[in-house]
Amino acid sequence: MRPVETSPALFLTAPDRTRLAHRLTGSGAPLLCVPGGPTDSAYLGDLGGLSAHRSLVIPDLRGTGRSDVPADPSSYRCDRLVEDIEALRRHLGLDRFDLLGHSAGANVATQYAARYPHRVTRLALVAPGMRAVGVEVAPEVRRELALERAGEPWFAEAFAALEAIVAGEGSDWEAIAPFLYGRWDGAARRHHAEGQPDNPEAVARFGADGAFTPDTTRAALAGFPAPVLLLAGAHDLNSPPSAVAEFAGLFPRADFTVQPGAGHYPWLDDPARFTETLAGFLS
């Protein structure tokens, strides 16, 4: 993860009195970036240099990073996190803004766009989680995508773990981490280790009952007026390109792109290409 200059931790108080942190980096028009996990947003860095084009507003979701643990654990639920994004918008004094969501954070961003469509000028979903819209990935899709990496030195162990997970006979998620990166090198290993969630309750309750209402969300997105970009990494087992393409079809004005050689964190695999794609869309 490249070092980036950011503001000191900035805070706001959510309506339920939970203190929430965010950081600012870069210059230009604001781009609010919702991290996945839920985990410390530091893993986003400055999104491969996107901060040279936009002022990135990056929140730590409640109970992660520098944000406080809420008194009510049910507030970790994805649909309720939407109101934390709305609280941040009001805190920043933004009438309308560009919104980006990565991985699980795309579920929050998608539900925000469905609930507050008039607030979003552009929506970018990077390697998106898709539970909010009910797009599912068949096991054979992940398996076929994994087999494309058969020449990698780590493949045999990682693929065996994947087969066990798919069969419901294993849970070694750590072993399949290489499938999430275009290159499983030292930088990827450090990024993976540093980006792991450290609040199990936040992770467990993110998708609790009621967190997702796919039919309602899909109906709202069918009329979403703003331009949308969905970006998939060609090697990403978490958000395979075919599933992300299906997600893109739910919007009336969506562009879909696949970044070659990239995994679940495309700004790490080819920062220049990622930045060019995002900056072009956002401009």
Structural class: alpha/beta
Gap between N and C termini, in Å? 25 Å
Query: What proportion strand?
Result: 15-25%
Mean pLDDT score, rounded? Answer: 96
Q: Please, how many helices?
A: 10
Secondary-structure element order, N to C: EEEEHEHEHHHHHEHEHH
Give helix % range: 25-40%
Could you say which overall geometry the principal axes of the C-alpha atoms support?
A: globular
How large, in whole angstroms, is the Cα Rg?
18 Å
Strands of the largest sheet, in order across it?
1-2-4-3-5-6-7-8
Per DSSP E runs of 2 or more residues, the count of β-strands stands at 8
Your description of this structure?
The protein is of the alpha/beta class and 283 residues long. 34% of the residues lie in helices and 18% in strands. It has 10 helices and 8 strands. It has an 8-stranded mixed β-sheet with strand order 1-2-4-3-5-6-7-8, sandwiched between helices. A hairpin with a 5-residue loop joins strand 1 and strand 2. Helix 2 (104-115) packs across helix 7. The protein is globular. The protein starts with 9 loop residues before the first strand and ends with a helix.
Short account of what is shown:
The protein contains ten helices and eight strands. The chain is α/β, with parallel strands linked by helices.
